Amino acid sequence: MSSRPDITASLILVDLLKTLKTMMDYKTLSKQTGIPVSTLARYVTNKTLPRGRKIPETVDRLLKLVNIESFVQQRLVSNGDEVDVSSVVAESQLLKLIVPYMYREFMGYKIDSVLAVDKAGLVVATAFGLATMKKTFYCVGNETGFPSRWKEVKYRLKEARMWSKLYLPSMVLRDNVLLTVGVLDDVLLLKEIRNRFVESRGEITGVFSIAASRDFMKNIKPYQLGKVVNLISF
């Protein structure tokens, strides 16, 4: 995304202020942010839209007021080897904190589209796409009746002698894409997805996940998948 502040940055800041307002009163929020109470009230009630080149800095400062990682950790369900993030993506208020977090992390990166790899990733991709006005796409696990519109990805399942398939929307393969995933634990799948983009002269700008296994992060080479960001490691 361009680093130039625009209407998107202003709207993300306002939405973040509205979310923080549900956690504290105007006086406390003003003290924490340095923004006058009267100005905060105009932002939160949609009477005024913040402007200026310092908006990204303000978003960063506001994100430091909340421990997003802790909120996510409290809602994860784990059995040791696997984690379930369904309770994370089910909470709209938490998603409203995750979106500006993503915006901050990928500021300055060129992103044409957002591509969800799994179901939890689709929730995140939709929220981020709506907030930043980016096209949002998703992968499917079964062959469709429109083969020209989907590109097959065949990959070996983790720790198994079996192969599986995933289908990518063909129209996204030439874009600069941000991948969103609920849980990152299979490096083989993402490597194959990357190969399809390389073949079509597209590019994976980065990957965002709610949770990622330490093994996955250890096996990813620097910039192999662009910038890789995860909220929780397991």
Automatic annotation (TrEMBL):
Highest taxon of source: Archaea
UniProt-recorded name of the protein: Helix-turn-helix domain-containing protein
One GO molecular-function entry: transferase activity
GO aspect biological process, one term: purine ribonucleoside salvage
Alphabetized Gene3D superfamilies for the sequence: 3.40.50.2020
InterPro entries: PRTase-like (IPR029057), Pur/Pyrimidine_PRTase (IPR050118)
Keyword Glycosyltransferase assigned: no
Keywords recorded for this protein, A-Z: Purine salvage, Transferase
